[in-house]
C-alpha cells in the first residue's frame, strides 16, 4: 500500500465500525474516528483500544454534516483513505422518517465526497447493503442482479452508490469500493465489543439474545409459510469480524486507478430463522422460547450472497462459521450487557 496508513472511519464507534477499527489497528493502520454517538456510546472507544492494544490517533465527536467538521479533520490529519459507515440503518424507521434518512445517509455522503476532493483524499470504502437488491428470487445473488430497493433506507444506500459512481466518473482520481453486506452478526472474540442496540432490537439475533438473557419473554418468528426448507426466511449471516476483514482487504487492494467497484460480502450459506435458533441453543446451551406469528411486511423468503467476485478479485473469504457468530454474540451479552434481575 502506498498511501498514508491513516484512515478516517466515520461511524467508527458503531457495530461494524468498531470491529473494523480493531482489525485495522491490529494490522498496522492508524485510525481517526468521527461519530456523534447517535447509535453508540463513548465507552466503545476505550474498548477498541483495549481489544487492539493500540491507540486511536484522534476522535471527533460530532455529526458528519456539521459545517466545517470534516474539512477540519482533513486539514488536521494526513488521511490516506476513508471508510464511511456513519448512517441510520433501521428499515421500519426509514419509512416513518424518510427525509431524515435521506439527509443523514445521502447528504452526509455528498458532503464527505466534496471534502475529500477538496483536500486531495481519493480513496473511499462505502458501507452498502444487500437491501439494495430488494424483492428478488435469485439465489445466490451476485452483483449483476439489478438493484430494486423497496424502502427509504435501502434507496438511500442505492442513491449513495450512484452518487459515488457519478463522482468517480467526473473525478478520475477518485477510487471507491462499495461493499454490500448481507446480515452481519456476532461480536469481537474478546467479548469487549459487540452489537448493543438501543431500544427494541430490529434484527433477529440481538432480539434472540435478549430473549435468551431473560430480558424479553419470547422471540416471534415472522412467518413459517415461506417456500424454504422449514418455511421460515433464509438469510446469509456473516461474522462481523469477517466483514471487518473485508474493509481492510478493500483498503489493501483499492489502489489509485480511479473508478468504483461493488462487491457483496456474505458467506454464500443460507440459514433459516429456525436454523438460527437451533444453532444458538446448541452452541450456547440456552433455550430460546419462540412462537411462530404472521409474516413481517417487506421480508423476502431468501437472501444469500454469491461473494465469489471479491474472492476472485482480492482473495477475501469468510473464516468464521455460524457457531462462532452465535457464540461470540452470546459471550458479549454475558460479559457486557445488563443482566436481568433474578
Ligand atoms: P451502527 O448504527 O451501529 O453504526 C453507525 C455509527 O454511525 C453509530 O456509531 C452512529 O452513532 C454513527 N452515526 C450515525 N449518524 C451519524 C452522523 N450523522 N454523524 C456521525 N456519526 C453518525 O450501524 P452498523 O450496523 O455498524 O452499520 C454501519 C454501516 O453499515 C451503516 O452504513 C449501515 O447502513 C451499513 N450496513 C449495516 C448492516 C447491518 O445489518 N448492521 C447491513 C448492511 C449495511
Ligand atoms: C432476519 C430474519 C425476519 C426479527 C436487515 C435489513 C437489511 C440489512 C440486514 C442493513 C427475517 C426474521 C427478525 C424477529 C424474526 N441491514 N425475524 N423475528 O430483515 O434480513 O435484514 O438487516 O443494511 O437492510 O433489512 O434482518 O435480522 O431483521 O431479519 O423472525 O424478531 O429474521 O423475518 O426473516 P433482515 P433481520
From TrEMBL:
Alphabetical keyword list: Carbohydrate metabolism, Galactose metabolism, Isomerase, NAD
Domain NAD-dependent epimerase/dehydratase: 7-266
Pfam families: Epimerase
Pathway: Carbohydrate metabolism; galactose metabolism
Cofactor(s) of this protein: NAD(+)
CDD domains, per database record: UDP_G4E_1_SDR_e
Record flagged with keyword Isomerase: yes
EC number assigned by the record: 5.1.3.2
Reaction it catalyzes: UDP-alpha-D-glucose = UDP-alpha-D-galactose
Record-stated family: Belongs to the NAD(P)-dependent epimerase/dehydratase family.
Oligomer and partners: Homodimer.
Listed name of the protein: UDP-glucose 4-epimerase
Organism the protein comes from: Cryptosporangium japonicum
Lineage, opening ranks: Bacteria, Bacillati, Actinomycetota, Actinomycetes, Cryptosporangiales
Amino acid at each position: 500500500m502506498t498511501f498514508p496508513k491513516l484512515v478516517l472511519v466515520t461511524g467508527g464507534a458503531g457495530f461494524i465500525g468498531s470491529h473494523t477499527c480493531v482489525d485495522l489497528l491490529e494490522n498496522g493502520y492508524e485510525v481517526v474516528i468521527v461519530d456523534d454517538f447517535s447509535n453508540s456510546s463513548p465507552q466503545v472507544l476505550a474498548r477498541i483500544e483495549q481489544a487492539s492494544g493500540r491507540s486511536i490517533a484522534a476522535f471527533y465527536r460530532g455529526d458528519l454534516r456539521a459545517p466545517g467538521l470534516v474539512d477540519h479533520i482533513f486539514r488536521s490529519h494526513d488521511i490516506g483513505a476513508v471508510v464511511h459507515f456513519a448512517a441510520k440503518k433501521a428499515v421500519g424507521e426509514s419509512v416513518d422518517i424518510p427525509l431524515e434518512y435521506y439527509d443523514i445517509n445521502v447528504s452526509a455522503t455528498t458532503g464527505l465526497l466534496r471534502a475529500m476532493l477538496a483536500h486531495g483524499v481519493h480513496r473511499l470504502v462505502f458501507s452498502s447493503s444487500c437491501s439494495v437488491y430488494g424483492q428478488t428470487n435469485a439465489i445466490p445473488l451476485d452483483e449483476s442482479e439489478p438493484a430494486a430497493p423497496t424502502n427509504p433506507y435501502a434507496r438511500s444506500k442505492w442513491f449513495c452508490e450512484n452518487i459515488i459512481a457519478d463522482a468517480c466518473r467526473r473525478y478520475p482520481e477518485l477510487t471507491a469500493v462499495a461493499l454490500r453486506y448481507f446480515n452481519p452478526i456476532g461480536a469481537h472474540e474478546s467479548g469487549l465489543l459487540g452489537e448493543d442496540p438501543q431500544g427494541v432490537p430490529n434484527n433477529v439475533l440481538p432480539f434472540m439474545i435478549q430473549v435468551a438473557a431473560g430480558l424479553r419473554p419470547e422471540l416471534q418468528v415472522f412467518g413459517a409459510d415461506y417456500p424454504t426448507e422449514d418455511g421460515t426466511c433464509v438469510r446469509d449471516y456473516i461474522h462481523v469480524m469477517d466483514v471487518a476483514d473485508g474493509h481492510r482487504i478493500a483498503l489493501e487492494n483499492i489502489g489509485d486507478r480511479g473508478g468504483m467497484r461493488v462487491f457483496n460480502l456474505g458467506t454464500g450459506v443460507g440459514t433459516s430463522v429456525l436454523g438460527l435458533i437451533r444453532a444458538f441453543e446448541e452452541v450456547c446451551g440456552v433455550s430460546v422460547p419462540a412462537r411462530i406469528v404472521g409474516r413481517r411486511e417487506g421480508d423476502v423468503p431468501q437472501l444469500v450472497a454469491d461473494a465469489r467476485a471479491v474472492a476472485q478479485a482480492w482473495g477475501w473469504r469468510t473464516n468464521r462459521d455460524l457457531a462462532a457468530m452465535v457464540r461470540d454474540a452470546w459471550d458479549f451479552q454475558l460479559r457486557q450487557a445488563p443482566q436481568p434481575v433474578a
